[in-house]
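FORM 7B: Structural annotation worksheet

SECTION A. Query
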Amino acid sequence: MSLPTKPQLKRYAGLFLGAAVLSFGLYNVHSQSSITEGGVLGMTLFLQHWFGISPSLSGVVLDVTCYLVAIRFLGRSFAKYAIAASCCFSLCYWVYEQFPPVLPSLSGRPLLAAVLGGCFVGVGVGLVVRSGGASGGDDALALVIARLTPLKISQAYLFTDLVVLLLSLSYIPLPKIACSLVTVTLSSFIIGRIHGSGKKVLVQQGLEQKPEGPEY
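SECTION B. Predicted structure
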């Protein structure tokens, strides 16, 4: 097995940095203020609230499940970096859990929490996607849905987010769910901007591959 090249090492560094930023925001903002995300990220917070399952565990289980389904329908080309990003997220979140939150609770200011949390998620996921990985099982699941249904990829993401937000109504008041919609919208915008700025770099490095699933 050959050693990773310099561009590949930079890619892994981007995956780790993105995962660190993402898990920091989820632990210090989302979980402390009951502002949730959609998709797999929101589901980990849902499971943590009702069943006491740490996102460092549930995140891996949910992501691996989505990856296995995606491999069945989309192939294996995306799997390596996606799994690496998922493992980095779980490791970073576990490290943060060993210490008290470093940010003050924003539970009394849900809109501010939604904006700040959306920024952390957007930057973190954006860095992961820019590095050619997947932010989690959300990406794989959305690609599968878009492949098997008439939905576009953006509609598939929205569908999974709305399902999780509806489930989250079981423990999060409606006004905070509305703030969560702000988080989802803001994070999606930031992800798109960061991914767009990094795609050209990946192409120049020969790291960008033609997607096997539907186009955005």
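SECTION C. Observations
The chain has a mean pLDDT of 79. The radius of gyration is 16 Å.

SECTION D. Sign-off
Analyst initials: ____
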